[in-house]
Amino acid sequence: MSASTDSTTLPRRRDFMRPVRYVVRTPLLALHIALSLPLAVLSLNPWFAKIPIGRRRFDHVMISWWSGTMVRLFGFRIRRFGTPLPGAVMYVANHISWLDIELMHSQRAISFVAKSEIARWPLVGWLATRAGTIYHQRGNTHSMNSVMERVVERLRGGRPVGIFPEGGTGRGDEVRVFHARVFQAALDAEVPVQPVALRYGRDGRQDPAVPFARGEHFAGNFFRLLGNPSMDAEVHFLEPVQSTPDARRRMAEESRARIMAALGQVDTKKRRGVEE
Questions:
Q1: d(CA 187, CA 161)
Q2: Which of 28, 63, 154, 201 is the most exposed place for a label (fewest CB within 10 A)?
Q3: Tens of pLDDT, residues 213-253
Q4: Which pTM value belongs to this model?
């Protein structure tokens, strides 16, 4: 989840309603944290986590509720298209913002692979760790090998895992290179891969004020999003890509192509769309 968007691309127009949004949203966000954090802690306790709530576990219900409320308090209207596959599945999505994890969590409790820096982020890192996030130290080959082993272990244990094959956040106007190596975990665990297309904006267009900009600190991005105008947060669960032996490059290409098609993007870099 490294930031890779150039902050110079962000809009410069004066937004006179931004102070009003801060006045309205900040106390609501504080209230949400104050009331729901104890419930989140309780739900992640092994003694309570597996209590059935309908067909779901208590901890999974709480993770989805907490995450969905968090996204909405930032002014987003969650719009889901398609249905997440049940059981063990590897979700692969394009990466725009730290909110991507919260948006997908609002639909299903998922163990994500994320950069190790997130563990140090206030509140978000604490919750991510207790929700089962698998941390990867970027640039460390040994770390990646260990991460892939843990991903396979969780998939074989029947748990879903979410991965961002781009390896970092983009501007949202194009899906960048997919690293095919991460798809080996789905092959080893013999589970399907479900592509997920994410977008934040209006009228089917990505808003340039949302992506995590290059060189931007988490706190700066957090408060910028908190003051942004209301918009849609779209999550598209697409047709799964079946895992077949010795086909991780094909799986990466097909996943990326389906996400781009769902977002209405034209692939101008087909030959450079996948990396090992």
A1: 13
A2: 28
A3: 777 888 899 999 999 999 999 999 999 997 776 688 899 99
A4: 0.86
Residue 61 lies in a domain: no
Q: How far apart are CA 274 and CA 54, in angstroms?
A: 41
How many domains, the chain? 1
What pLDDT does residue 141 have?
Answer: 60
pLDDT winner (highest mean) among 53-57, 167-171, 241-245: 167-171
Query: Can you give the residue range of the structural domain that contains 121?
Result: 76-267
**Nearest of 56, 75, 79 to residue 204 by alpha carbon:** 79
CATH number at residue 101: 3.40.1010.10
| 274 or 204, greater pLDDT | 204
Distances in Å between the alpha carbon of 64 and those of 15, 43, 58, 102, 127?
A: 32, 12, 10, 8, 12
Tell me 182's DSSP state: G
Q: Token pair of 230, please?
A: 């209301």
Q: Is residue 34 included in any domain, yes or no?
A: no
- In angstroms, the CA 216 to CA 45 distance is 34
